[in-house]
Design a protein that fits this description.
- Its EC number is 2.6.1.-.
- This is Aminotransferase.
- One of its GO terms (molecular function) is transaminase activity.
- This protein is an alpha/beta fold and 391 residues long.
- It folds into 2 domains: 132 residues, Aspartate Aminotransferase, domain 1 (Alpha-Beta Complex); 239 residues, 3-Layer(aba) Sandwich (Aspartate Aminotransferase, domain 2).
- Helices cover 42% and strands 14% of the residues.
- The chain contains 15 helices and 12 strands.
- It has a 7-stranded mixed β-sheet, with helices on both faces. A 3-stranded antiparallel β-sheet has the order 9-12-11. Strands 1-10 form a two-stranded parallel ribbon.
- The protein binds pyridoxal-5'-phosphate (PLP).
- The site of pyridoxal-5'-phosphate (PLP) has 14 residues, from helix 5.
- The site of pyridoxal-5'-phosphate has 14 residues, from helix 5.
Length: 391
């Protein structure tokens, strides 16, 4: 075989953080007590039955066996605009302000590529979903990571961005509800964000992957609910978490028409179209009763309570996440995110995601996900208690 070197862009991409965690687990799995894997963000619940049935029907339709239209089927674009109107009171043009694609991942790597040129800066947060760094690399752009501090409710402080970075900033990429911290955006923060973006002429993307996952009746805000948001903003939505459809690969972006148009143009060249039957099933999910989505939130909320109440009972004084399906837990004194994750791995056979994987600022935290049953989470608490780390 002749070895062909990959492109500079591809060589710059880091090792996938979650893949590394999986490999470590795979190597150790046969050694004694089974592991509890609390590191993953892959929903464990089945897709609601009515959505699965709608896909089955859609597969039989001849129209779905041919190429679908480039911009997506009309029924799904209308379902998206109706959904945003019903859920958030936001009015959207189904042709000019909606783009569909194979999951949020495509949106958050695609939109920066349609807006950034080499040397531009993308503003992200530290910690953040690690793919944001890859997205900047694919765009041949630099990143400036705004620290998320617990003392500021894990919201960035725009006034701390250096002036020379502001001049070169061409995208602001946010993610609320936030992975990994579990934070929800406040109305005041959304307003501040839109004011900031308008003042400095920076397009803002909100990765709304955990849109439905707010606990204790706190419904997460859409950035587009903010006045003037569409003048500078787009939001990326996914079916993966709201409806447990992670494997189906369907997401969409809504908002600023110039960004949507550029994204649609890019996609026609880069990815082509989404399977029509998946589009029909997504339309069914968005148009049907949202009780299934509320039931999913209730399940995660019960799991969160089992985990957080349990950890507090054994003396680990942790904060309770208001949203997402992640708990972002400060590690006990004397540890950092990696050494504490190693301790749990080696002595409790529990896999958690070390916070350092989400950025330097995550180094005093570990991320535990709620995509495991209440029994498994309770067992994890028991295993941590047996380490006698607290009290
Ligand atoms: C913050 C965030 N954005 C995007 C995604 C990817 O979502 P999708 O399944 O729609 O590609 C994830 C998945 O875990 C995520 O955590």
């Amino acid at each position: 075989m002749v070895y062909f070197q990959s492109s500079e862009r591809v060589r710059k991409l880091p090792v996938n953080f979650f893949d590394q965690l999986d490999n470590r687990l795979a190597e150790s799995e046969h050694s004694g007590k089974p592991f509890i894997n609390l590191s993953k963000g892959n929903p464990d619940l089945p897709t609601p039955g009515h959505i699965v049935e709608s896909l089955k029907r859609a597969v039989d339709k001849p129209e779905n066996q041919a190429y679908p239209p480039f911009l997506g089927k009309e029924n799904v674009r209308l379902a998206i605009t109706d959904f945003y109107k019903k859920e958030y009171g936001v009015t959207l043009d189904p042709l000019k302000e909606v783009a569909i694609f194979h999951g949020a991942h495509i949106g958050i790597t695609g939109i920066p590529q349609v807006l950034l040129n080499p040397g531009d800066y993308m503003l992200i947060t530290d910690p953040c979903y690690p793919i944001y760094y890859s997205s900047a690399i694919l765009s041949q752009a630099q990143t400036y990571a705004m620290p998320l501090e617990e003392s500021n409710q894990f919201l960035p402080d725009y006034s701390r961005i250096p002036k020379d970075i502001l001049k070169k900033a061409r995208v602001l990429l946010l993610n609320y509800p936030n992975n990994p911290t579990g934070t929800l955006a406040t109305k005041a923060f959304c307003e501040e964000t839109i004011d900031f973006a308008r003042k400095y002429h920076i397009p803002v993307i909100n990765d709304f992957a955990y849109a439905s996952l707010g606990f204790d009746h706190n419904k997460p805000l859409s950035l587009l609910q903010t006045e003037h948001a569409k003048t500078v903003g787009v939001e990326v939505y996914t079916m993966s978490k709201t409806y447990d459809m992670a494997g189906w690969r369907f997401g969409f972006a809504v908002g600023n028409a110039s960004i949507i148009q550029a994204l649609n143009h890019f996609q026609m060249h880069a990815y082509s179209t989404v399977f029509g039957a998946v589009q029909d099933a997504a339309a069914c999910a968005l148009k049907s009763s949202q009780k299934c989505a509320a039931d999913i939130v209730s399940t995660y909320q019960r799991r969160r309570n089992v985990l957080i109440d349990g950890l507090r009972r054994i003396g680990w004084n942790v904060a309770s996440p208001p949203g997402t399906f992640f708990a972002w837990l400060r590690v006990p004194e004397g540890y950092d995110s990696q050494s504490f994750s190693d301790l749990l791995f080696d002595h409790a056979h529990i896999v958690v995601a070390p916070g350092i994987g989400f950025g330097e600022n995550g180094n005093q935290f570990v991320r535990i996900s709620l995509v495991n049953s209440e029994d498994i989470l309770a067992e994890a608490v028991d295993r941590i208690e047996a380490l006698h780390l607290f009290k």
